[in-house]
Design goal:
By secondary structure, the chain is α/β, with parallel strands linked by helices. It has 2 domains: about 160 residues, Bordetella uptake gene, domain 1 (D-Maltodextrin-Binding Protein, domain 2, 3-Layer(aba) Sandwich); about 120 residues, D-Maltodextrin-Binding Protein, domain 2, CATH 3.40.190.10. It is about 40% helix and about 20% strand. Helix 3 packs across helix 10 and helix 3 packs antiparallel against helix 11. The N terminus is likely disordered.
Length: about 325
């Protein structure tokens, strides 16, 4: 016999549950998360180290979450297109974002980037990376000093590639140009592969790539690696001198790679994501992937990262004002 009273009470409780605040409902659902595939939005074109690392960690974390994690490349606008897509996605943990230091600098260099740093919260740290100055082998220079002398002998004739005003690929050559007194022109590209190809063909005379990409070009007969932005030489590129040792300490810098979720994502879901991705990063597969891509593990903690982002922003704002960079 059907207990109509119990059935009515169950129906009422189900109905009332949807009157609870969204966070309470999400918290109740947190234990079951995830129940469907997730996605990582990568605001860079496919094929670069950013793409390879995001796909590798997606595979490893997917095993631990019991769900497929799809990587979606959304390049454009100096990473703003992909970043805005994540900012506008539901804060339910199913849409994550791969980002680098441009997440910070874009909030100043662009008058309306369409997001704030507070819109996102870190899920896991992926790696650290310096930048390497690439030049075409066809250019008659073999050292940084020779490049600067060549640039000064051809004022207004040289071009440098960037991925947008808010990226390190813009800031680093800008710093070098100011320090060395160079008269050259910025050309913007969608990704490292496109910019590096432009260097090889001679359309531009330099591009600051990540050390990950540069480490794949050691045997190239079309590119030369002049200097690296790290504090000291890196194991992957032992013969590439630092800008610091060459007399340009202001061109010392690095980037980080990290995964983010929307800041409004419920804590139980964040905890699940952070545990899965932290375990994935410890795996032998990920450590091998980092080494194979010329990347170093991130030297810091997830807990300290938000404060690091804010400090980076304040440092960048001060530097931008000093260099005469105005938001556009």
């Amino acid at each position: 016999m059907i207990d109509r009273r119990a059935t009515t009470q169950a129906a009422l409780l189900t109905a009332l549950s949807w009157l609870l605040p969204p966070l309470s409902r999400a918290t109740a659902q947190g234990a079951a998360f995830p129940t469907r595939p997730l996605r990582i939005v990568v605001p860079y074109p496919p094929g670069a180290s950013t793409d390879l690392i995001s796909r590798a960690v997606a595979e490893e974390a997917g095993k631990r979450l019991g769900q497929t994690i799809i990587v979606e490349n959304r390049p454009g606008g100096g990473t703003v297109v992909g970043t805005q897509a994540v900012k506008n996605a539901p804060a339910d943990g199913y849409t994550l974002m791969f980002q680098a230091a441009s997440l910070v600098s874009n909030t100043y260099t662009l008058k309306n980037p369409g997001y704030k740093l507070s819109d996102f919260t870190p899920v896991t740290m992926l790696s650290d990376a310096a930048y390497v100055m690439l030049v075409p082998s066809s250019l008659p220079v073999k050292t940084l000093s020779e490049f600067i002398a060549y640039a000064k002998a051809h004022p207004g004739k040289l071009n440098y590639g960037t991925l947008g005003r808010g990226t390190r690929t813009f800031v680093l050559p800008y710093r070098l140009g100011v320090a060395a007194g160079l008269d050259w022109t910025e050309i913007s590209y969608k990704g490292t592969a496109e910019a590096a190809q432009a260097v090889m063909s001679g359309d531009i005379q330099t591009y600051f790539s990540t050390q990950a990409y540069a480490s794949t070009q050691l045997e190239s007969d079309r590119l030369r690696l002049l200097a690296i932005t790290s504090e000291k030489r890196v194991d992957f590129l032992p013969n590439v001198p630092t800008f610091k040792e060459l007399g340009y300490p202001q061109v010392t810098d690095h980037s980080w790679y990290a995964l983010f979720a929307r800041s409004e994502t419920p804590k139980p879901i964040l905890d699940t994501l952070r545990a899965a991705f932290a375990d994935a990063m410890k795996s032998a597969a990920m450590q091998t992937q980092l080494r194979n891509n010329g990347l170093s593990p991130y030297d810091g903690t997830l807990e300290a990262f938000p404060a690091k982002l804010e400090a980076e922003l304040q440092h960048f704002i001060a530097e931008a004002k000093q260099l005469g960079l105005e938001p556009q």
